[in-house]
Each structure stands twice: as structure tokens, then as C-alpha cells.
Amino acid sequence: LAHAAPRGAFSASALAEPAAEQAAAAAGGAGRDEEAVFMAKTAADEEVEKRRLAELKATNMTAFVYELQKYVDQINATGPPPLAPDNELRDVVLRSSTPPSRLIDDIYNYTFRSVPYEDAMYICAPEQATLLHLLARVMRARECLDVGSFTGYSAGAVMQALPASGRLTAIEIRGEYAAIASRFLSQLPARLETRVGDALAELRALEAEGRLFDFITIDADKQQQQQYYEMCLRLLRPRGLLVMFGMMLYPTEEDKEAIDGLISLVANDTRVTTTMLPVGCGVQICTKKGERALTGPLVPPADLPPAELRAYMLEAELAAIDVALADAERARETGGRYVPRPPPGAPEPPHAGGGGGGSGALPGPKAAGAKQP
Ligand SMILES: C[S@@+](CC[C@H](N)C(=O)[O-])C[C@H]1O[C@@H](n2cnc3c(N)ncnc32)[C@H](O)[C@@H]1O
């Protein structure tokens, strides 16, 4: 699960990095020998280390965060060494990116202060959160799903890209972390739906409810990532975006095996177009091709103010265009053998040259199952 913890980004206002730490970072982080020492630690060593870190946390938060970075380097050393993040490069990336919002910063700082360090270091890296925000914005995403939300850092970055009528569904197995996320994220205009439970069960339930999403992020336990991928692909609308974290660096050999298997599946999966970005622990981005998976005509949520309502309807038209484009692409790829089925209960789509094709005929995914006003 390990993310490379954000060097120099604590409190987002970038605390100055101690000179000795800078030198260590420049030297390239933990190597295989250090990893062996790390793996050979006894439970008693761990106890001593826990006490040392607790004391550091109470007296010097900056030093504490950099100590955590060392742990992350050691954990990440089980990944392919040449892929370990280059900290100097990361600093350049962070300095060149829009700084995180106040809320995102607050979640980050609260997590480091209040969550046990062995969990806190799994927080998503700031450059990954910024990337998610940007992608959700470009997608004009409205219905989003976050699998493995932890304290809501990446979920918050996505939610801040949504319109007020947008919604993010957050799945997290640990109730105490979901509660932290909810406390922060309920301040945002977009809606938050929290689902506390095992991701496989929650994803099954979402499918049974007929839900569809524009934008999905997966960042939970890596052993199940392949199953999450398959299930999330079904929950993703055509031309929607699926983003998976932890695709280049892994805490254990078992995770590496699971992710290696997933990478060869995804790279050759004709249902998606995909690429990997070496950002943080490795970000796999997939866009779903083809088949219509939408049901029911469009209805906006009740009580939308006029400006939001207009935006909603226009977005729905865009979503309908996405579906039509995906259908056309699939038909082209199959030499015309693919004929999209109209969703149940919907009027027949207009045939080529018939014009129209707006949200009445080709319902948008963003309010699946509802009726046209
Ligand atoms: C790497 S962290 C996610 C970090 C998060 N994306 C962020 O923004 O900081 C992984 C999260 O997945 C959760 N998780 C692990 N296994 C899970 C499961 N089977 N179902 C749901 N959540 C799970 C963990 O409790 C943890 O909070």
C-alpha cells in the first residue's frame, strides 16, 4: 500500500527539510542492505522504535514526518529499485504544481498528527492528489467513487473538482478513518456518501443498485486490486476514467506479484485504453471503451438552483455524446458487428443522419434510472 510520503510537503507550506535529510535523500534512499536490517527487526526493536517516534511526534513534528519518509523508503525498497521515486524530482514536481487547498492540507496534517504512524504513511502523496483533482476537472466528473478512502485526502481532492450537484462515494473498511474523512469532507459543496465496509461487498452492492460512475479511484489492499479493477470497470460509464494507485511500488513481495499480474492484464485489456504515470507510487489511468451500460432517462436532483440546473442538463447532453461516441468507436472496431442496445424503457435511438440524440434519447449516466423532467 505504501505511498512515498510527501517530502517537503508537510503542512503543504513545505516545511524546510533538515540538511542531513536532504543529503540522505540525494544519496538515493534505502538500499537492499538497509532493507535486510529493516526486515530483521524484532518485536522488542519495534516497541523501542514506537516509543522513540511517539516522543519525536510530541516534540518535533517536522523531524517526525521525515522519519516516516525513511520508513516509506524502506518499504518501497521491495519494489524495483530503479523505480523508487527520485526525491529531488518530486520536489520539482511539487514546486511546479498548484498547492493543495486549505482543507486538503488540514486533512494531511490531521492524519499525521492523529493516526498511528504505520497507517499515516499510507496517505496519498500530494502530487497524486493534485493529479486526481486535475483529471476529475478535465473529465467534468459528477459521480465519483473512491475505493480505500482512508482519512479522505484523495477523496477531498476529487470532491473539490466537482460541482455542487456532484457526489463522491467513499468506501473504507475502517470506521474510524471513514469518520475522519466524513468530518472534513462534509464541509464541501458536493455530496459525500460514506460506505464503511469491505470494498468487495460494497462494490457488489453498488452494482446491484445500478450505480454508474464517471470517475473511479482504487487505492485499497493490493491483493484484491484485480478484483476491484474488474468490478469497477463494470461500474464505470463508457469513456469514464479509472485510476489505480500503488502500481509501481509495493510493500511486500505478495503485493508485487498481485500488481505485476494486474499490469499485464490491464495493458492488454481491449476494454480500456491505459497508461501508467510514474507519480508517487505509480498511477495507472484507464479510460473505458465501448459498450453502452446506461439505463433510464435523465432527471436532475431536486432543488437545484437555476444556474446549476442548466449546467446539469448541459453536462447530461455531454454524457450522452460520450455514450454515442463510445458506441460509434466500438462499432468501428468490430467492423459494424456491434449494435448498441437501447437501455430498457428508453425510446429507440435516432438512426444515423436522423439528428438529435440529446439526453431524451440517449440518457446520460449521471442520473441513471431517473425520468426526464
Ligand atoms: C493506501 S490507503 C488509501 C489512501 C487514500 N487514498 C488517501 O487519500 O490517503 C488504503 C486504505 O484502504 C483501506 N482498505 C484496505 N483494505 C480494504 C478493504 N478490503 N475494503 C475497504 N477498504 C480497505 C485501508 O483501511 C486504508 O485506509
From TrEMBL:
GO molecular function: O-methyltransferase activity; S-adenosylmethionine-dependent methyltransferase activity
Keyword list, A-Z: Methyltransferase, S-adenosyl-L-methionine, Transferase
Highest rank taxon of the organism: Eukaryota
Keyword Acetylation carried by entry: no
Residue numbers spanned by region Disordered: 331-373
Name recorded for this polypeptide: Caffeoyl-CoA O-methyltransferase
Organism (species): Diacronema lutheri (Unicellular marine alga)
Compositional bias of kind Low complexity: 362-373
GO biological process, one term: methylation
